[in-house]
Amino acid sequence: MACFGSVLATAYMAATEVEGPMQFQAPRGTKDVLPPESRTWQWVESTFRDVCSRFRYEEIRTPVFEETGLFSRGIGDSTDIVTKEMYTFEDRGGRSITLRPEGTASVIRAYVQAKLGGEHQLHRFYYIYSIFRYERPQHGRLRQSHQVGAEAIGSAGPEIDAEIICLNAALYEELGLTDARLHLNSIGCPACRPGYREAIRTALAPSLSRLCPDCQRRYETNPLRVIDCKVPDCREVAEQAPSILDSLCPACVEHFSGLRRLLDALGQPYDVDARLVRGLDYYMRTAFEFKSGSLGAQDSLSGGGRYDGLAELCGGKPAPGIGFAAGIERTILALADSGTAAPSDGRQPVYVASANGDARLEAVRVVQELRYAGLAADFDCFGRSLKAQLRAADRLPASHAVIVGTDELSRGVVVVRDLASGEQREVPRASIATEVTRPHHP
Ligand code: HAM
Asked: How far apart are the first and last CA of the chain?
């Protein structure tokens, strides 16, 4: 086999004019997820699906790439995501295509395209997506990362804001992530935000030269973003800016206090954080993030908010909406930090060991039957001795070893050994599944 393999490799190298063997690495900012870590991913994803199903959210799947214009329009031309981070390329048909840098714009595009909506119709979606952003990789920040997210489209009332926030909180609760803290803000609406923008510009004008180059640009294009810049000098300058909560119009004040009343009534703790602005332009009114102290600089576990103008911006009828997305990688980092591990699926395999010859063939059949009967079953595929096979069964660890011997085979029986107690007995070939699932009586 090895010889045939190397012949193939040589032929391949000759054909592709590669000079020697090459080792490839996963691209910078991407990560392979191998077992056993993949079990934690499955646990996070299945927990999220379960919570969503209880909140009556249904799964939506959209393409991994979209027309570039959807994101530049939807997320905003002046945002960091659109100006610096998108994976954009021209396809062979000359179209500008972008790998999705987030999920919301695609969900709204699908909603508009399917002509969903109508009076008193609320559409609740959830998704599990990979997203792509050309960012500087660091702890908790990747170029391909993964999100679980939910969007509720059709209602403007604060009840649905509270629902989305509680859905996000329920995910952390179910996962046992106790240090996720909710930061909440209202960033106003098209009626009150222009006034606030001007108020920020006026307050920051005397210190403009102290802002970082990005914030000097943001000062012109989107001064709200200066408020939550992490650069220490910008933070200091931003102290001089008035609080957005003092600039809200009466309708936004009412919406925000309605949401706060609901969260209080539901027992959902939060910190009002007037600096929380979020990096996507489609937000209005509610903006929130769950943060974890264990994550360091990239401390945002999840983020979301209301985007009532997005459907119209994407060519649809007006449709208010709110949603959030939570980073899977960051959730897993926070879980690891708190020492929380994915629970075992409770499925201990049965190991089918055998002597060589006919017994081996029979062992493979037994494995197949057990698997078809709904049990996890494993066997030796290296031609090892019976003793070595039983050692492998212990190492797994398997719950039982089924020993298929030549002599037993002729009598239509096998030996089933309970590996925890060491107890073993002969059972008819047809009763193996019943025997290995029999409750253990010590
Ligand atoms: P976002 O704040 O850009 O919002 O991302 C949400 C979460 O995704 C972050 O809190 C973080 O956990 C994770 N995340 C984002 N970028 C990266 C990265 N480069 N590496 C690792 N994790 C990352 C959105 O994406 C909005 N679409 C959320 C939303 C849904 N708003 C309304 N509906």
From this structure: 47
CATH for 389:
3.40.50.800
Q: How many structural domains is the chain composed of? A: 2
* Beta carbon of 106 within 6 Å of any ligand 1 atom: no
Cα 147 to ligand 1 centre (Å): 7
Q: Where are the beta strands (DSSP E) in 229-320?
A: 271-272, 284-292, 300-306
Predicted pLDDT at 358: 87
The DSSP output letter for 289 is E
Nearest CA to ligand 1 atom 1: 303
Q: Whose CA is nearest to atom 15 of ligand 1?
A: 327
Q: Is the pTM of this model over 0.70?
A: yes
Residues 302 and 374 in one domain: no
CA–centroid distance, 436 to ligand 1, in Å, is 46
Q: From ligand 1's centre to the CA of 103, what distance in Å?
A: 9
Element (H, E) at 201: helix 193-204
Cβ of 163 closer than 6 Å to ligand 1, yes or no, is no
The token pair at 428 is: 């008819």
47 in contact with ligand 1, CB cutoff 6 A: no
Q: Is the separation of the CB atoms in 243 and 195 below 8 Å?
A: no
| Per-residue pLDDT, 2 | 44
Both 279 and 305 in a single domain?
yes
Give 15 Cα–ligand 1 centroid separation in angstroms: 43
- What whole-number distance in Å separates Cα of residue 121 and Cα of residue 115? 12
Question: pLDDT for 254-269, tens place per residue?
Answer: 999 999 999 999 999 9
Q: Does 255 map to a domain? A: yes
Same-domain status, 307 and 179: yes
Task: Judge if 273 and 414 occupy the same domain.
Answer: no
Instruction: Kindly state if the Cβ of 103 falls inside 6 Å of ligand 1.
Output: yes
Q: From CA 196, how far away is CA 188, in angstroms rounded?
A: 9
CB of 299 closer than 6 angstroms to any ligand 1 atom: no
